[in-house]
Amino acid sequence: MGLPDELRDAVRAYLAGRPGASWQESAREVGIAGLLVPQEHGGAGCGPAEMAAVAGELGRVLSPHPFLQSAVMAVTAARAGGAGELLSALADGSATATVVLPGDGDLRLEGDLLTGDVAYAPAGEVVLVYVAGLLVEAVPTRREPYVTMDESRPLQRLAFHQAPVRRLGDGGSWTRVRDLGIAALAAEQAGGARRCLEMAVEHARTRRQFGRPIGSFQAIKHKLADLLLLVESAHSAAEAAARDEVSAAIAGSYCTEAYLAAAGENIQVHGGIGITWDHPAHRYLKRATSDAQLFGPPQAHRTRLAAHVFTDA
Fold first, then answer.
1. Taking every annotated instance into account, which residue ranges of this chain make up the domain Acyl-CoA dehydrogenase/oxidase N-terminal (predicted)?
2. pLDDT of residue 312
3. Could you tell me the CATH number of the domain that includes residue 299?
4. Which of 152, 197, 208, 288 is the most exposed place for a label (fewest CB within 10 A)?
């Protein structure tokens, strides 16, 4: 068993034993906030394999913690910008951050003043913005949290009106930040999809109709077998997602659709109870649906992938 597997087991046990733990408590007790932060800044200095292991476990339980935007994307951006003080604050959970990528908003930088709007951004206290070929830190003039269908992924609208910025470096790192974000999201999606499969299998074993478990019926068997193939393939794609832009695009497309399928089929296997408010199945479908738009829909990932695959076209 390697470090990613040990970390996966430790995080799963922690989340099961401390389901209501805050981000600061999680940072202090299991170190997930500083997973990618270099050791000299108080972090664990781990890499993409460990990141994927943690993200998968957070996805299994639909954690609202800002691991994706703060511990992955903001940490990667801050490392590229040499923001050591910010890295230390992110590592111990005393601060959270979010990243605005090029194209995420209508922004303009005039000197050291930022103006414009970002319609949707994952929640975070510190805001790092890629704009005009630079990476800057800026305090929004106004924040508006959304009441979202998927409450496990808090989103906010950001407005800047001649907001002073702190320059952290050039913006050349943004594609790597995006691709690591896609990789972390793919791991979350794979973890959520696997949990949907587990719930469906358990229900198929225990729910009885016509004197036998519904899992003994051929239609349910085929449905679950197809889901198993999707989930295992999504897991493989997520594990490879951090290698490069092509792998990230593959995972962004495949894991998104696999999660949507798994969440939908989980509800179908459960039947009527699957659409009730008290059963968690609907929460996974909501997360899968919102995740499908976070870095663009699957079609956007495939378009980016096509530029690499069909280079001679």
1. 23-73
2. 61
3. 1.20.140.10
4. 208
Q: What is the pLDDT of residues 263-304, one digit of tens each?
A: 999 999 999 899 899 999 999 999 999 999 999 999 999 999
Residue 312: strand, helix, or coil: coil
**Strands 126-131, 134-138: pairing kind:** antiparallel
- Looking at residue 12, which CATH number applies to its domain? 1.10.540.10
Q: What is the pLDDT of residues 6-29, one digit of tens each?
A: 999 999 999 999 999 999 999 999
Residues 6 or more apart whose Cβ sits within 8 Å of residue 179: 241, 242, 244, 245, 248
Name the 3-class secondary structure at 19. Answer: coil
**For residues 137-151, average pLDDT:** 94
Q: Please give the mean pLDDT across all residues of the chain.
A: 96
* End-to-end Cα separation, the chain, in angstroms: 44
Q: Band of the pLDDT at 1, cuts 50, 70, 90? A: low
Question: From start to end of the chain, where are the E strands?
Answer: 97-100, 105-110, 113-122, 126-131, 134-138, 142-145, 155-170, 208-209, 212-213
**pLDDT > 60? residue 313:** no
Asked if residue 151 and residue 67 are part of one domain, the reply reads no
Q: What angle is formed at CA 98 by the lines to CA 94 and CA 103, rounded to 5 degrees? A: 170
The type of residue at 3 is L
pTM over 0.70? The answer is yes
- Within this chain, do residues 305 and 184 fall inside the same structural domain, yes or no? yes
CA distances from 157 to 63, 122, 126, 142, 160 (A): 21, 9, 14, 8, 10
Please check whether residues 111 and 229 belong to one and the same domain.
no
Based on the fold, state whether residues 165 and 188 are members of the same structural domain: no
Residues contacting 277, CB < 8 A, separation 6+: none
Same domain? 73 vs 56: yes
Q: What is the DSSP track for 246-282?
A: HHHHHHHHHHHHHHHHHHHHHHHHHGGGGGSTTSTHH
Last residue of a domain, one of 69, 95, 121: 95
Of 124, 141, 172, which residue is a domain's last? 172
Give the domain range for residue 239.
Answer: 175-309
Q: For residues 197 and 224, is the Cβ–Cβ distance under 8 A?
A: yes
